[in-house]
Specification:
- The chain has two domains: about 100 residues, LON domain-like (Archaeosine Trna-guanine Transglycosylase, Chain: A, domain 4); about 70 residues, no CATH class.
- The chain is built from five helices and six strands.
- The protein has a five-stranded mixed beta barrel with strand order 1-3-4-5-6.
- A hairpin with an 8-residue loop joins strand 5 and strand 6.
- The longest helix is centred in the C-terminal third of the chain and has 28 residues.
- The protein is globular, with a radius of gyration of 19 Å.
Length: about 190
């Protein structure tokens, strides 16, 4: 038996460790935001997309409210802590306006480091992009977040495990390095005036 949690269906798939900005405007999700702020609860972002046949979503928690508008709308930041598979969705959560879902948490281990091979490629990528990351340790999710994968790649990444997940990321980092090398070569060909 899973756990029933508040649910916010969106066409995004946050990855564990990722900070995500959201604009809250519907009254039912304003109510969810109020509850998240008052009770410090985690809630689900269900990946509401046609490709989501596995019914996955992200477990998030309110990190910060950036701005509240007179209309009741808000700009917020949430942080993803885990992923889940949803068994059943409900129109409302208890006596609330917002949705709910029965979920099973994946209990993702964000402490597992990447292989030396992926770490070396990823550090090369960061160097070429002039990105400074103070961390001395990278997990697979930190790499995937930095690569800014589209929703299809995020979904594929989430559904792969172990060595396949590592291979997936190595392939994506190599592709990005290839694009950066092409960009450098094009600077030598095109002279801007």
């Amino acid at each position: 038996m899973g756990t029933t949690i508040p649910m916010f269906p969106l066409t995004i798939l946050p990855l564990p460790g990722e900070l995500v900005p959201l604009h809250i405007f519907e009254p039912r999700y304003q109510e969810l935001l109020d509850d998240a702020e008052a009770d410090d609860i985690k809630f689900g972002i269900y990946f509401n997309h046609a490709i989501n046949i596995q019914r996955v979503g992200s477990l998030v928690k309110l990190e910060r409210i950036i701005k509240k508008y007179e209309t009741g709308e808000s700009d917020i930041i949430v942080k993803c802590y885990d992923a889940f598979t949803m068994d059943k969705m409900y129109r409302s959560y208890r006596s609330k306006q917002y949705s709910a879902g029965d979920v099973n948490y994946w209990k993702i281990n964000q402490q597992a480091p990447v292989s030396p091979k992926l770490e070396e490629l990823f550090r090369e990528y960061l160097l070429k992009r002039n990105i400074i990351r103070p961390e001395s340790f990278f997990n697979a999710y930190a790499v995937a977040i930095e690569l800014n994968l589209d929703v299809n790649d995020r979904y594929d990444f989430m559904l792969t495990e172990g060595k396949a997940q590592e291979s997936f990321l190595i392939q994506r980092v190599r592709y990005q390095l290839h694009l950066l090398a092409q960009e450098e070569r094009s600077k030598d060909v095109f002279h801007l005036n």
